From TrEMBL, chain A:
The keyword Magnesium applies. Its cofactor is Mg(2+). The gene is hdhd2. This is Haloacid dehalogenase-like hydrolase domain-containing protein 2. Keywords: Magnesium, Metal-binding. GO terms for molecular function: metal ion binding; phosphatase activity. Belongs to the HAD-like hydrolase superfamily. Pfam families: Hydrolase_6, Hydrolase_like. The keyword Magnesium applies. One of its GO terms (cellular component) is cytoplasm.
UniProtKB/TrEMBL annotation, chain B:
Its EC number is 3.6.1.1. The gene is LOC106592890. Keywords: Cytoplasm, Hydrolase, Magnesium, Metal-binding, Nucleus. It is an enzyme of class 3 (hydrolase). The keyword Cytoplasm applies. It comes from Salmo salar. CDD domains: HAD_PPase. This is Phospholysine phosphohistidine inorganic pyrophosphate phosphatase.
Length: 259, 272
């Protein structure tokens, strides 16, 4: 493992770590403020694909979080830049509320499939349409491959299962742009100007938040909120740097033991 | 070379297993239409000294409804000769005392009438077509993820099939989706599962090396049968593609243009 350097940045997951749907994790706002008073840079990285950045910020503000739009890096942003880079015309299987982040892209006669979390679009007809495009050679771009996420009334399927199904049916491999891809974390760290060995990730998804971050040399802290289920920390190797009850405890640890 | 392999074994044959869709008939809007010569070929096999069974991964209708449709097309066939995944699944469920949450096509639901379904402790998925909505998949997912050790049965594992208006995703895709979501491996019931073929052999009371499987699906019909020790012949009808004859892992014991040609060859070599 690479030698650690002084901590410069903390990447923080949103859904499940700072809040669950419309409820803030108790004490998270204060903890964030305390972290901001320290010397580290803070950035918010999210695989939330249902919502455009504007909606995310509005929700966070309504929950009294002090967060600016430019501090948020989402998998939708990452997907859009890939589509633009490769000049593709995507069939967008993303929630209507996320379409804003793709405005201005050419989508007629699609030659690519971008798949996010779109319960309204994950039906037999639309998936068949996506399948035929990919079978004909259109690239499959997955905003992320999360297995499931937590809602008020229980766990719900994420985009990962649908991406996996399409991969199986077409014998192809999706290009994943969100967490846990290494490129996603590197991109998020780039404008802070720090390397992975100087950064830590806090999230409720052991594999996608912590495993992904640790794979490129960051430290990772799993919080036991949101989608966390008992034993999750054992699902990744090497194990998480730390497992905490909540975001508040993770911040306390950073302030007391790392900085 | 391949052709002689199966023709040499014809004399020692005691039974034949036929795949149905793509061998007997082509699927379509109005229930489909028989492949030319197949009705007559089934009739000739039945009149011979060979045993005959039918083996399908069809899971959109009960066997009764499905067989009635084939009879309407002119096939001499009865329910007890047809092996499909749903009844096999029912047997497994009862044997293991499992109570399924079902995500299957409405047409096949009656096959599961005799199975206890309250407080489910496993999930069974079949080709549910339009019923594969986010909501229905999520319901199945929630049953699985709540179990200490999730048990998922999939009636077949096909990737896609062809209908009049284009290619459609098959059950295997949704099986993969749930496998990935729950970190579980599904138990496949139907072709190419060896247990499924063994039931058919047991019913005929013959050994696998005395049996020939004829199908249009190279991997599931031909490969599956060969894996059990049977001979497998592919017909160039249904979902057959010329590239099948150069498949990297499965080589049929023979290729014939259609069922009619296969039966003609078999009966001639047996002197009938």
């Amino acid at each position: 493992m690479a030698t650690r350097r002084a901590l410069k940045a903390v990447l923080i997951d949103l859904s499940g770590t700072l809040h669950v749907e419309d409820t803030a994790v108790p004490g998270a706002q204060d903890a964030l403020n305390r972290l901001r008073q320290s010397s580290v840079a803070v950035k918010f990285v999210t695989n939330t694909t249902k919502e455009c950045k504007r909606n995310l910020v509005e929700r966070l503000h309504s929950l009294n979080f002090d967060i600016q739009e430019q501090e948020i890096f989402t998998s939708l942003t990452a997907a859009r830049s890939l589509v633009e880079q490769r000049q593709l015309r995507p069939l967008l299987l993303v929630a209507d509320s996320a379409l804003e982040d793709f405005s201005g892209l050419e989508t007629s006669e699609p030659n690519a499939v971008v798949i996010g979390l779109a319960p309204d679009h994950f039906n037999y007809q639309t998936l068949n349409k996506a399948f035929r495009l990919v079978l004909d050679g259109a690239p499959l771009i997955a905003i992320h491959k999360a297995r499931y996420y937590k809602t008020k009334d229980g766990l719900a399927l994420g985009p990962g299962p649908f991406v996996t199904g399409l991969e199986y049916s077409t014998d192809c491999q999706a290009t994943v742009v969100g967490k846990p891809e290494g490129t996603f974390f590197l991109e998020a760290l780039r404008d802070i100007g720090c390397c992975p060995e100087e950064a830590i990730m806090i999230g409720d998804d052991a594999r996608d938040d912590v495993g992904g971050a640790q794979n490129i040399g960051m430290l990772g802290i799993v919080v036991r909120t949101g989608k966390y289920r008992v034993g999750d920390e054992g699902k990744i190797n090497p194990p998480p740097y730390l497992t905490c009850d909540s975001f508040t405890q993770a911040v306390d640890h950073i302030l007391q033991h790392i900085l | 070379m391949a052709a002689t392999t199966w023709e040499d074994s014809v004399k020692s044959l005691k039974g034949v297993i036929l795949d149905m869709c793509g061998v007997l008939y082509d699927a379509g809007e109005d229930g489909g239409s028989p492949i030319p010569g197949s009705v007559e070929a089934v009739k000739r096999l039945k009149a011979s000294d060979l045993q005959l069974r039918f083996c399908t991964n069809e899971t959109q209708a009960t066997r009764e409804v499905f067989v009635a449709e084939l009879q309407r097309m002119g096939f001499d066939i009865s329910v007890c000769e047809v092996f499909s995944p749903a009844p096999a699944a029912v047997a497994v469920l009862k044997e293991r005392g499992l109570r399924p949450h079902l995500l299957v096509y409405n047409g096949v639901l009656p096959e599961f009438d005799s199975v206890e379904k309250t407080n489910p402790n496993c999930v069974v998925i079949g080709d549910a077509a339009e019923k594969f909505s986010y909501r229905n998949l999520n319901d199945a997912f929630r049953v699985l993820i709540a179990l200490e050790k999730p048990v998922l049965f999939s009636l077949g594992r096909g990737k896609y099939y062809k209908e009049d208006d284009g290619l459609k995703l098959d059950v295997g895709v949704y099986m993969k989706a749930l496998e990935y979501a729950c970190d579980v491996e599904a138990e496949v019931i139907g072709k190419p599962d060896p247990m499924f073929f063994q039931k058919v052999l047991d019913d005929m009371g013959i050994q696998s090396h005395q049996t020939l499987m004829i199908g249009d699906d190279l991997v599931n019909d031909v490969g599956g049968a060969q894996h059990c020790g049977m001979k497998g012949v592919q017909v160039r009808t249904g979902k057959y593609r010329p590239s099948d004859e150069k498949h990297p892992t499965v080589t049929a014991d023979g290729y014939v243009d259609n069922l009619s040609e296969a039966v003609e060859t078999i009966l001639k070599l047996r002197g009938q």
